[in-house]
Amino acid sequence: MKQGIHPDYNDSVIVCACGNRIATKSTSDEIHVEICSVCHPFYTGKQRLIDTAGRVERFKRKYAKSGN
Question: Which residues bind Zn(2+) (predicted)?
């Protein structure tokens, strides 16, 4: 490898929205993610709705009129 052309590879922390912190190595000091293996439905077996700008409420209002 050539010297002086590669970025610094330091200890880093991945921070999830659920509060979980994972130690890793990266060129960034801190990485923020929305879902990790602790809170992801595939790993936990629990469904978690992530409401973005009221989409769930809008969906419920739209299909509440159909009566199903």
Answer: 16, 18, 36, 39
